[in-house]
Amino acid sequence: MSEIAGRHILVTGGASGIGRLTALRMAARGGRVSVWDIHTENLDRVVAELGSAGCAVARGWICDVSKRESVYAAARETLGHGGPVDVLVNNAGVVSGKGLLEIPDEKIEATFAINTLSLFWTAKAFLPAMIEQRRGHIVTIASASSLIGVARLADYAASKWAAMGFDESLRAELRRSAPALETTVVCPFFIDTGMFRGVKSRFPRLLPILDENDVADRIVDAVERNRRRVVMPPIVHWIPLLRVLPVGVFDALATFLGVNASMDEFKGRAAS
Question: Are 114 and 61 in contact (CB under 8 A)?
């Protein structure tokens, strides 16, 4: 039996994009899947899809992860109806895609509330039961921007650097206090979803815009194999090593690779 079959899986932001695809794959592998999202219509649709995918128990909950009270309320409902969560996939995320001075203050605050602070609230909500049952896995969907700052992504990159630090610190804590628990951080380059519509890659063979199905497959594989870090594509592994270069050389290399022009034609997800 894999770690997924028969387990209770919760995916935040699970009604669209890679969250939806990850939830469907978890259901196909026998998981009991709960999904959180803020969009009622999309949530109802994905719960129906989960049932069609063979999920014996599929539930959806409206939850605004940017609000601590909403997270704790949804967590109580989720635990009450589905029991302890075995695999928590912290997928909910937003991106502004603007230059720093163009981003309204409230949008910056929302980016950190959703991409970073929500990680603390979900972990505090579900970790106690995981520790008690000596079984659990927390997945943090970070980004390649957790490893390198990118023009027009100041708030997003900073929030994802924080997400990387959260995962690493949590992993260190659990290694000492609850070694049976696992964590995974996922660091993909841009994914071909509505969230990053319009982004470009100068060298698509080296830095391809990732297929959302491939990313979802890698997330599920990481849970099944207890992989602590998933980095996509392979060249992203080199970023930490390249930091030994002088800052000017590092910046010039990023510019040559087109990293800082990748957001120039960004459009993002159309307003719903």
Answer: no
Q: Measure CA 2 to chain center.
A: 22
Measure the CA–CA gap between 61 and 74, rounded to whole angstroms. 7
Q: How far is CA 182 from the centre of its chain?
A: 16
Residues 155, 153: Cα–Cα separation, whole Å? 6
- DSSP calls for 135-174: --EEEEE--GGGTS--TT-HHHHHHHHHHHHHHHHHHHHH
Instruction: Give residue-wise pLDDT tens across range 144-171.
Output: 999 999 999 999 999 999 999 999 999 9
Sketch the domain layout of the chain as residue ranges: 8-261
Catalytic residues: 156
Does the pLDDT value for residue 213 go beyond 80? yes
CATH architecture of the domain with residue range 8-261: 3-Layer(aba) Sandwich (3.40)
Q: What is the pTM of this model?
A: 0.95
Helices (H), 178-227: 212-225
